[in-house]
Amino acid sequence: MDERRTVKVSKYLARHLRHQPERIGLTLDEGGWVEIDTLIAAASAHGFRFTRAELDDVVTTNDKRRFAVEGTRIRASQGHSVEVDLGLPAATPPPYLYHGTVARNLDAIRAEGLRPMNRHDVHLSADRETATRVGARRGRPVVLPVDAAAMHRDGHVFHVSANGVWLTRTVPSRYLRFPASH
């Protein structure tokens, strides 16, 4: 499958498995799962056709491992705006995690900390490189270190998704290290 088609199928899956399953008549179970055959049929009925082979290719080649397949079911690994319970156990984070953003967001982040916005949790990366790539999707990236050890000591709960994204409800600004030049 060519790269443009892979991206198109991946974005379609993300939209309907994370945000708008009802748009194509899907009902996710409490864990966010849906039968693959049901997904393919619903997409086809709504004018977007893809094969099981294309879906498998997207799942296995996506560098962010956005989707998980378990038997005959699929779900998004995280990033939902619809209500799901991913069933992730609480996890002890490494001392520091990282959040990629852009300079225009820094004043709001200083004032309000990191909020989940239209998602259930704030997404954090285990390394600067990943956070840099995340921030670069919106412009010139700024990486904010998060004192995850202090947050954890203070009672904040962390989870880690199957694809290594660290999740927490919010990150108050006192746990963030801001660059001096911004």
UniProtKB/TrEMBL annotation:
NCBIfam families: PRK00819.1-4. Coiled coil: none annotated. Its EC number is 2.7.1.-. It comes from Streptomyces griseoloalbus. One of its GO terms (biological process) is tRNA splicing, via endonucleolytic cleavage and ligation. Belongs to the KptA/TPT1 family. GO terms for molecular function: NAD+ poly-ADP-ribosyltransferase activity; tRNA 2'-phosphotransferase activity. SUPFAM superfamilies: ADP-ribosylation. It is an enzyme of class 2 (transferase). This is Probable RNA 2'-phosphotransferase. Keywords: NAD, Transferase. Removes the 2'-phosphate from RNA via an intermediate in which the phosphate is ADP-ribosylated by NAD followed by a presumed transesterification to release the RNA and generate ADP-ribose 1''-2''-cyclic phosphate (APPR>P). May function as an ADP-ribosylase. It holds the Pfam family PTS_2-RNA.
